[in-house]
Specification:
The protein is of the alpha/beta class. It has two domains: 2-148, Rossmann fold; 154-265, no CATH class. The chain contains ten helices and seven strands. Strand 1, helix 1 and strand 2 (29-33) form a beta-alpha-beta unit. The relative contact order is 0.14. Bound molecules: iron/sulfur cluster (2 copies).
Amino acid sequence: MRQFAVLQLSGCAGCEVSLLNAEAWVDRYKLVYMPLVISAYDVPEVDVLLVSGGVRTDEDLYNLRRAARRARQLVAVGTCAISGGVANLGDRDEVRELFLAEAERRHLPRLLPRIRPVDAVVTVDRYLPGCPPTPELFMAVLFTPTDFKVGKTVCRECGRKKRRDMRPTHLIGFEQGEVLPDVCLINQGYLCVGSSTRGGCRALCTRPGHPCVGCRGPSDTFIDKLSSEWFTSIQRVFAAMTDIPAEEIETALRSPQLALFLFQFSDYAGTGRPPRPKEKVL
Ligand code: SF4
Ligand code: SF4
């Protein structure tokens, strides 16, 4: 039986919970290391090492290098491992000004000068973006089924119909209004960014009526471009489908509520590092 381990660096435990929500691996893989659920001192030799979280502390750096040497295949899973996620927000000046200016941090592991994605330290074989990736995506990266297909964008997986006769003039807050079934959320005035977000989650949020906040990151079209191009494409979609003023969309995209999400998920090419090869990103 193949063995796999889950190394958790600085992040939340969302990816681990998502993995545990899937069952298909239980009979085919032996989970030998995952501090959340298994008491094991160290990562042994494994076929697959899933790494979640970003490299934020000297302890993360040490653990990652050590574990990577024992893995035949290493997969960076989730937003934090790929673009820094929550732990990256403190490195962004605009976010620091918004949220962290007054914060005092004590008694934490010593921080490295900057957070680094996993692939700044070790070679990554595949990338699995998501916050967290869905159980189905975890199984796809572990088993690589030949019939597994994902839509290029969340829109392609959503199924809600875009309408020419519904052009909202202002945005509606996420928690407001009655969401109409089957009609695109943009036509209803919600700030959904599914049009430029990579598919694979089966439009988990938009189908029941929650706007996509982009947790799968930019679609292949934007993955090797600056995050500003991702934002611009969202603006273009709203200009084509609504009469909402561009300034209103811009302000909303950069509002603390949405920026917290989009800044986390958009750093593929904004860190001065080469873009991730598209063929390695699920
Ligand atoms: S609701 Fe969002 S994901 Fe669905 S079709 Fe509209 S823009 Fe695309
Ligand atoms: S719909 Fe958007 S926010 Fe929701 S899981 Fe998919 S990519 Fe993430």
